[in-house]
Write a structure and sequence with these properties.
This protein is α/β, with parallel strands linked by helices. The chain is built from 13 helices and 12 strands. The strands form 2 sheets. Strands 1, 2, 3, 4, 5, 6 and 12 form a 7-stranded mixed β-sheet that branches. A hairpin with a 6-residue loop joins strand 2 and strand 3. The longest helix is centred in the first third of the chain and has 26 residues. The protein is globular. It starts with 9 loop residues before the first strand and ends with a strand.
Length: 380
């Protein structure tokens, strides 16, 4: 593990593959004491079609063999290694110049409340030992289970990073991540309040699944298909009856609840396909607005920083803006962190926290019994 002078930046790489399963994001981050993390470079590796299919199958399989899990994990790890190597090559860095890689892994199932009276669990496919071998870098991984062991939801973890990035900005800040699922962070202006953060509901996970069912391709680029439809208010009302939307935070969710079969169970069979897509976008926007309504906002207006792949969906962003007229939308790119890289950056920062023995969770977000140092370390 590389050591550095206290005043010099240390380099970390964060790896993230979200519930959208579209690829591996790698972010090279410089961390200097007493300064917000700085994004230096990025690399993205698209998820190979075969691996995308494997992972999607595992996310919805009622059972899977150890051989299937091992094959998917091995292939996933090798794509991660390619992303790291691409980043190192772009910046002309050697592995020993990287203090650590923070690897989130690929979530296969997330059940913080347990399943059928069983224990709480969250499962991310990952092989940090192999990743350390392939890259020559120290790897920090398995970030979620320590928070879960302390009674937390193990998610979302990004709000602590949002606080490190944007917590010193003047005024009240909201951060919305529109990935496979949408999660919201509130950074209060007054120190008397604790940071809040929670999942608001589905985002790209249902939009992508419905699009892929009716079109070639994985996603509705720019929301063009959704924009061609009409919002079906009756369908929207049925979808919003899902008890998750009435839960009080802390809360998190995943593909275990929101998936294509769940959607199809709410359809009458008479809806136009493009109207369903438009309604799914509205479901995301309305559930985000419902989440904002749960926050003890201090001011009449707040700044909303939107990140994740959904930030590029023009129709979805239009609906979010319509549902939240009281907020000012701001691209985090204007603050040095483009929309696509905040989640990967979070795991670079979490690796830094682990190596320095600092907490990575926020109990006010996850519901854990206290701050915890997250993750395990794997030397090259």
């Amino acid at each position: 593990m590389k050591t550095s002078h206290p005043s010099s930046p240390a380099y970390y790489i964060g790896l993230m593959s979200g519930t959208s399963l579209d690829g591996i994001d790698a972010a090279l981050v410089a961390i200097t004491p007493d300064h917000p993390p700085t994004l230096l470079a990025t690399a993205a590796i698209a998820m190979p079609d075969a691996l995308h299919g494997q992972l999607l199958h595992l996310c919805h399989a009622s059972s899977a063999s150890f051989a299937e899990l091992a094959a998917a994990e091995d292939a996933f790890c090798r794509v991660q290694a390619k992303a790291v190597q691409a980043l190192l090559a772009e910046r002309g860095l050697a592995p020993e110049q990287i203090t650590a890689i923070g690897s989130h892994g690929q979530t296969i199932e997330h059940a913080p409340q347990g399943h059928q009276s069983g224990p709480a669990y969250t499962l991310q496919l990952d092989n940090p030992s192999l990743l350390a071998e392939l890259t020559g870098c120290t790897v920090v991984a398995d970030f979620r289970r320590r928070d879960l062991a302390a009674g937390g939801q193990a998610a979302p973890l990004a709000p602590a990073f949002h606080q490190a990035l944007f917590g010193q900005r003047p005024g009240e800040q909201l951060v919305l991540n529109l990935g496979g699922f949408a999660n919201l962070t509130w950074l209060p202006h007054q120190p008397a309040y604790a940071v809040m953060g929670f999942d608001t509901g589905p985002a790209n996970v249902l939009l992508d699944a419905w699009f892929a069912k009716h079109h070639a391709g994985r996603f509705d680029e720019n929301g063009t298909w959704a924009a061609s439809g009409q919002i079906d208010e009756a369908l929207l009302a049925r979808l919003l009856e899902e008890p998750f939307f009435q839960q009080v935070p802390p809360r998190s969710t995943g593909r275990e609840l929101f998936h294509l079969t769940w959607l199809e169970q709410h359809l009458s069979g008479y809806e136009a396909h493009q109207d369903v897509q438009a309604t799914l976008a509205e479901l995301t926007a309305v559930s985000v607005a419902q989440g904002v309504a749960l926050l003890p906002l201090e001011q009449p207006s707040a700044t909303l920083l939107v990140c994740g792949g959904g930030a590029h969906n023009a129709y979805l962003m239009k609906r979010v803006a319509a549902q939240l007229p009281q907020v000012t939308l701001l691209s985090p790119a204007s603050l040095g962190w483009p929309e696509d890289w905040i989640e990967a950056g979070a795991f670079a920062w979490l690796a830094h926290q682990r190596l320095h023995g600092l907490p990575g969770n926020l109990p006010s977000v996850t519901g854990a019994s206290g701050p915890r140092v997250l993750g395990g370390m794997y030397a090259p």
